[in-house]
Amino acid sequence: MHDVVAYVPIVKTRRRWTVGGLLSLMIVVNYLERSNIGIALPAIRHDLALNNVQIGMVLSGFQWTYAIAQVPMGLVVDRFGPRRVVLTAGLIWSAFAAATGFATSLVFLIIVRAWVGLAESPMFPSGIKVVDAWFPTREKARAIGMYEIATQLGGTCAPLIAALLIKAAGWRLMFILMAALGLVPLLLWWRFYQKPEDDKFLSPDERALILSGRQDFSTTVPTFAEWRRLFTYKQTWAMIAGGLSFSGMIGFYAWLPIYLQETRHLSLVAAGGSISFLGVFGITGVIAGSSLSDFLIRRGWQAFNARRIVVVSGSLLGAVAIGYTAVSGGYAVMLAALAAGAFCGGFNAASWWALAPAVSPNDRLVASLGSLQNGGAFLGAAIVPLLIGRLLDLHYDFHSVIAVSACFGLLSAFIYGVLLRGPIERTA
User: How does DSSP classify residue 425?
Assistant: First the structure.
C-alpha cells in the first residue's frame, strides 16, 4: 500500500480549515485577476484591431509563461515555503494585472499577460504544499476541493464583475480596480499563515490528526538531485501528458465570451451572466468529486485508486458533454451541455491535484510533482487557444473547435486510466 489511513479520534479544534479558508481566499483573488480578461476580449479586439490568431496569442501569453514556470516553481515552493512565495508572487501579479489596463498594442498586451502568468505560477504548487502539510490523507481531496471551489468561485464571479465594471468605467479601469482588490488578502496571508509546526493556535490533538496516515512528515527541503529524479519516472510523464489533455478538454471555455457574444449574439452582461451561471455547476462538481474521492478512501480504497477513478470518469463524461455542445441546437440545450461539461471539469479538479500526494515518492516532492502536472496542463492551455484561433481564421466554425476539445477529454481518460498505472515507489 502506498499510504495507510490510520484511525485518529475526532478533535474539537479546526485550525486546519481556517488555514484552508485563507488559502481559498488567495485563490479567489488569483482567479479574479486572471479570468477577467475573457469578457473584455471583444472590447479589446475592437480597440486594438486584433484578429482571431492574435486573440489566441493574447490568451496564450499567460499560459506559456505559466506552463514553463511550473517546471522550477514546485522546487521553489518546496525550498522557500508558500508563505514567502505567495506574498512575493501576489505583489507582482497584481502590478502586471493592473498594467493590462494600459495596453495600447498587441505586443504590450502579450508582455503584461505573460508576466501575470509567470507571477501566478507558484499559487497552485503552494496550495498543494499547504494542503499536504496541514491535512491528513483522508481529508486531502476535500481540502483541495475547498480551494478548487475557490477557483470556480473566482472564475464564476470574474466575468460578471468585469462586465459590470466595463459597462460602468471601460475595460482599462476594470483591470486596475480588480488588481487593487487583491492587495488586502495578500496582507492577511502574510500576517496569519504559518507552517503547522510554527502555528501557535494548533492544538496537540489536531496536530496528531494532521499527521495521521502520513509516511514522512519531513520539514527538510528537497535536493536538486531528488527533483531531477522525478523526470526518470514514467508516472511523472504520464501526469504531464494527462494534464495537457485535461486542459485541452476545457480549452474551449476560454473562448466562451467571444462565442456567446459573436456567434450566439448575447449582450456583454448576458454573456458574463451565462458564464457565471456555468461556474455554479463547476463548484457543484468540485464538491461531488472531492467528496466521492475521500469517501472511497474512508471505505478502504488506496488513495491513488480513489483519485484516479474520479479523474478518469470525469474526463470521459466531460468529453461527452462538451462534444454534445457541438451538435446542440437551441441556446438552452447548448447551455445545459456546457453546464454538464463544467460540472465534469470541477468533478475532476480536486482529485486531479490530489494525485500528486498519492503518486509522489515522498512528501518533500509533492509540490514539485504537482507543479509538473500543472505545467503540462498549462502547456495545453497555451497551445489550445492558438489552435482555436487558427481554426477560426481558416473558416472552421465553433462546432469543429468544440469537437477538438472533446477529443482531448477522451485522451485524458486514456492517459490517467491506462498509462498511469500506479504510484511511484516511496523513498525516505
Answer: P
Measured CA distances, 18 to 14, 15, 199, 214, 325 (Å): 7, 5, 12, 21, 39
More confident: 84 or 397 = 84
> Rounded to whole angstroms, what are the CA distances from 39 to 8, 166, 264?
47, 9, 14
Tallying the residues shown for the chain, one arrives at 428
Rounded CA gap, 210 and 217, in Å?
10
C-alpha cell at 413: 481518460
CA angle 150, 151, 157 (to 5 degrees): 85
Which of 304, 294, 247 shows the shortest CA–CA distance to 421? 304
Q: Are 221 and 291 in contact (CB under 8 A)?
A: no
- Which comes out higher in pLDDT, residue 63 or 358? 358
**Residue 217 pLDDT > 50, yes or no?**
no
Handedness of CA 71, 73, 78, 80 (dihedral sign): positive
Q: Provide the 8-state DSSP code for 365.
A: G
Say what the pTM is: 0.69
In the numeric block, the cell 474539537 is attached to 12
Alpha-carbon distance of 365 to 356, in angstroms, equals 9
Confidence of residue 226 (pLDDT cuts 50, 70, 90): confident
CA distance 9 to 6: 10
pLDDT in tens, 271-294: 878 888 888 898 899 889 988 998
pLDDT at residue number 115: 95
- Measured between alpha carbons, how far is 81 from 195 in angstroms, rounded to an integer? 9
**How far is C-alpha 179 from the geometric centre of its chain's CA atoms?**
19
> Could you tell me the three cell numbers for 328?
446542440
CB 376 within 8 A of CB 237: no
Matching CATH number, 15-212+222-419, of 3.40.50.300, 3.60.21.10, 1.20.1250.20, 1.20.1440.20: 1.20.1250.20
Q: Are 132 and 140 in contact (CB under 8 A)?
A: yes
Contact 401, 392 (CB under 8 A): yes
Sign of CA dihedral 403, 404, 406, 407: positive
Place of cell 456555468: 278
What residue type is 365 in one-letter code? L
Q: CA-CA distance, 72 to 75, in Å (whole number)?
A: 5
Q: Identify the CA nearest to 375 among candidates 44, 8, 125.
A: 125
274 touches 321 (CB < 8 A): no
pLDDT tens digits, 236-263: 999 999 999 998 888 778 788 888 887 7
